[in-house]
User: Which sequence fits this backbone?
């Protein structure tokens, strides 16, 4: 986790304590009221960069704001290395977009 904190500090110019406004501006929940389209949340249960508890907070806020979303959780980190899992997620992405654009699913 420490390398990710160092990466964030390098990216944002310092720590959250020293530049809280930059971290706030970089946090997706800051803009959640502006969400205007359905969202698909693909959540790696073991993601060190975006722990699932952060997604829980975001999801709960989406729900409280009555924003449409779908959620899928998988047992991996930031993306899965299991080929079948990755294929399933691509299929889910395509189905989600097709559904919300009201277009037919592509045929194999």
Assistant:
């Amino acid at each position: 986790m420490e390398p990710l904190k160092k990466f964030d500090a390098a990216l944002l110019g310092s720590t959250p304590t020293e530049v809280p406004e930059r971290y706030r501006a970089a946090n997706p929940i800051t803009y959640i009221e502006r969400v205007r389209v359905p969202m698909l949340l693909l959540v790696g249960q073991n993601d060190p960069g975006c722990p699932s508890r952060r997604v829980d907070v975001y999801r709960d806020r989406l729900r409280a704001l009555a924003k449409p979303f779908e959620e899928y959780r998988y047992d991996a980190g930031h993306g899965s290395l299991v080929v079948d899992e990755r294929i399933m997620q691509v299929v889910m992405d395509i189905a989600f977009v097709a559904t919300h654009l009201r277009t037919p699913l592509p045929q194999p």
